[in-house]
Amino acid sequence: MNQCNAVVLLPPPDHVVGLSVPGHRPEAGHVLCELGEDHGHAHAAMLWDEGGRPGSAVWARWDAERTELVPLPWCSALDTRDEACGLFAGHPSGHSWQVTDPTDEAIRRALAEQHPHSVPRAPSSG
Q: I need a surface site. Which of 44, 100, 118, 119 has the fewest CB within 10 A?
């Protein structure tokens, strides 16, 4: 499934503004939803992880009404290679390995066409 394309503009957190040099206020930045499209719930983007403890990842969650920063535990699901899902526990839609960023995929395809010798090919079956 494709990644959701919802974007929100986040102002810098107050504690970051408080640490900034006078006259050099940090700028707001855009974040892109990391969930699979049609997830039907609040959008989400992971902002930072404070060390792998339960609830240590801070996520931006937003909908049409409001945006909030919330600590959420990681999803415990593993793929067939024992790679962990990169989303929060209880997330809607598919796991991170099931979500494709269409921009990254378009770049990969363009590079494969322009430089076929430098892009790994999928293993052939049979």
A: 118
DSSP 8-state code for residue 57: E
> Could you please report the per-residue DSSP string of 44-104?
EEEEEESSSSTT-EEEEEE-SS-EEEEEEPBP--B-TTSPBPSSBTT-SSS-GGG-B-HHH
For strands 43-49 and 29-32, give the pairing.
unpaired
Q: CA 82 to CA 61: how far, in whole Å?
A: 27
pTM for this model (two decimals) = 0.75
6 is written with which tokens? 């919802």
